[in-house]
Sequence to fold (407 residues):
Amino acid sequence: MSFEKIPMSTPLVEMDGDEMTRVIWQLIKDMLLAPYINLNLEYYDLGLPNRDKTNDQVTVDSANATKKHGVAVKCATITPNAARVKEYDLKEMWKSPNGTIRAILDGTVFRAPILVKGITPYIPSWKKPITIARHAFGDVYKNSEAIVPAHAKAELLVTLADGTEQKYPVYQFGESAGVLQGQFNVDESIESFARSCFNFALDTKQDLWFSTKDTISKKYDHRFKDIFQEIFDAEYAKKFAEAGIEYFYTLIDDAVARVVRSEGGFIWACKNYDGDVMSDMVATAFGSLGMMTSVLVAPDGTCEYEAAHGTVTRHYYKHLKGEETSTNSVATLFAWTGALRKRGQLDGNQRLMEFADKLEQATIDTIESGIMTGDLASMSTLPEVKKVNTQEFLEGIKERLEALLGA
Fold:
């Protein structure tokens, strides 16, 4: 078909990734983006071999480029464990690239399921999307930890600006060795997290829930609770009342029970680790981790879009053997559409925004027509379902996209 390619004036930061998602990443660019857009991309290879080669400097560079240009799109990446260090012959066990990027950008990760007809949530009461707002700074993702020998004494030492030292007892180890972990957060980041959540709730007209374990963590978690409440009372209570939406705090265990009994349609704000775990739970319960959008929103409005899932290792090794795979590419596709739409908004590029909308619509139309990857086919309630392989699914989307662009 004849199509005048859409221009892009400002670069979009592209962060390439690992394994099967890296394969899909290139397919999406070749089949669904490059034929229609004059892509203006600032490329960073965050594949594990290149992170190791650059001593992870490429991750830092990509985050700083994102701060410069305002929008990034990221492929899923490997966070290496001991087995991966051996497999890839790494210099060291590099930290999570997502954790590094989030620490540099600060902000909040918002994750929401992509709903389509025929994919029924595992929890029957869920009728509307549940958006997880995950704090994206500090905590266990930027921790310090150690293996501690028997009979060691562990203390928390804080040295004040004037040199004064304050010590807090942690644990006196006995006959058994053990492990020790220290983590932190800062008021400034918690305040940004709170405001991001309140603003997102107002923008989307959804109730906001926030949960920690302040009854056990009477200083660390309680600090989060207090900052949220202070900012809400001072800046947002009236706005929420006018919008007809609610903010409330509850303990994390009570929140889990409430979420399971709910019909959805709200934002659930969680600390970093809680949000990591609960977003996967929500995504899976709605149908598939491959159907979950994720965007990191920094305090200055900078956005980094990514899929909420991992690198699909099992499919990748099948792919390397030349075997057919049926890998769900929807979340990766929606990372691209989210980033392109945001780039279009910032640049006043209406055609780019419309293209992102049509690509998303083509993706949903493909699934609702019965053409889908294996993970979705196994749970679909549509009367006629056709399971297709990885590339055939993208070809089905391309066919519908061209029809929408032609219309």
User: Anything to note?
Assistant: The CA atoms of residues 155 and 169 lie 5 Å apart. The chain has a mean pLDDT of 93. DSSP finds 14 helices and 16 strands in the chain.
